[in-house]
UniProtKB/TrEMBL annotation:
The keyword Translocase does not apply. This is Transcriptional regulatory protein KdpE. The modification 4-aspartylphosphate is found at D52. The lineage of its organism: Bacteria, Bacillati, Actinomycetota, Actinomycetes, Micrococcales. Member of the two-component regulatory system KdpD/KdpE involved in the regulation of the kdp operon. Upon phosphorylation by KdpD, functions as a transcription regulator by direct binding to promoter regions of target genes to positively regulate their expression.
Length: 227
């Protein structure tokens, strides 16, 4: 039985989700605010969190940031905020998925199944040595990036994209492959996510982001890392 932590300040929605998820065989923890969510995240040992961003005490993005300090459990944002800025902020903070309200229960159950498969996937044990391209260095074993000797802070999504590209030097990674690998099934058409994150990576790593040497775009197809 998997444990789901649902965080939402709407008691009726919280209760409805609790009843429906329990009927599907989940153990359900609930929280009406961010402080309760953090307590449950630490002491309740949930397998996945379903989180509303508009909480009365702590911003949902801050909740994600705090959870990510100690936990890698999947976090599915469930929010009425439809703007791309809110989505990018939540994903940058470490959320794994973003579902907008109103939503269907079938969709949420599907997202939970995907989150369960991803969280139980085996980790890759062997890491290649660090990759140094001159402009920047990627230490895959220690998950660190430096540029001109200075550490570069990457968001979880930025790191996932960079890691996938660096592990496949010279190889075209299609948009669909990248979306499926990093965001999961159901994101085949969300190519704007990739444009946003690749732009951020180039600004952080390339000497001339407008004319990248290493993080290349193959128009209409995907992306390539050239050492």
């Amino acid at each position: 039985m998997r444990t789901v932590l649902i965080v939402d300040d709407e008691p009726q929605l919280l209760r409805a989700l609790q009843v429906n998820l329990q009927a599907e065989g989940y153990r359900v923890l609930t929280a009406l605010d961010g402080a309760s969510a953090l307590r449950h995240a630490e002491g309740g040992h949930p397998d996945v969190m379903v989180l509303d961003l508009g909480l009365p005490d702590i911003n949902g993005v801050d909740v994600i940031t705090r959870v990510r300090r100690t936990s890698s459990m999947p976090i599915i944002v469930l929010s009425a905020r439809h703007g791309s800025v809110d989505k990018v902020r939540a994903l940058d903070a470490g959320a794994d998925d973003y579902v907008t309200k109103p939503f269907g229960l079938d969709e949420l159950l599907a997202r939970l199944r995907v989150a369960g498969r991803r969280s139980s996937a085996p980790e890759v044990a062997e890491d290649p040595p660090a990759v140094d391209v001159g402009d920047f260095e990627v230490d895959l074993a220690n998950r660190k990036v430096t540029r001109e000797g200075e550490p570069v802070r990457l968001t979880p999504r930025e790191w996932a994209i960079l890691e996938l590209l660096v592990r496949n030097p010279g190889r075209l990674i299609t948009q669909q492959q990248m979306l499926a690998r990093i965001w999961g099934p159901g994101y085949d058409n969300e190519t704007h996510y990739l444009r946003v994150y690749m732009g951020q990576l180039r600004r952080k790593l390339e000497k001339d982001p407008a004319r990248p040497r290493h993080l290349l775009t193959e128009a209409g197809m995907g992306y390539r890392f050239e050492p």
